[in-house]
Design a protein that fits this description.
This protein is mainly alpha-helical. Helix content is 78%, strand content 0%. The longest helix has 33 residues, at 2-34.
Length: 151
Amino acid sequence: MWALCKRRERWKGVDLGLLMMGISSFVLGMLLLWNSESLMQIFSSDPQTISYGLLRAKITLWFYPFCGLTHCLAAIFRGAGKPIISMLGYVLNWGLLRVIILLFVLPHYHVYSFLCWVYPITWLGSSLFLSWNYMKLDWFPEKKEIYLELD
């Protein structure tokens, strides 16, 4: 019973970690968005390159908390001994969904802004998949003791 209580105490730390990740990734995204033009000028002085970078920043930086949520939840699943769930979250969304969008949808829309939306879509998909598993998984199953009766 004591081990079960200690394990449940850890979830307070998990919840605090998820909250801190959400706050810090949102603040980081907003700081980068606020300073994006000056940051882009560090790497290039070409106005067209800077405009492409600004467009990408305006689309993707709002979704940084979803990327962080995916990484945190995947780490929680791996730490809890359930790496298959985190692997499926990455492979199905960041791998398969991203490739499907790039191969089948993008050729019909030759627009750079659509390409910039591929990352946020897959971040959102993996966050939803891992969040659903985080909520529905039975983290503390009752252990049934098996007694072997010898005659």
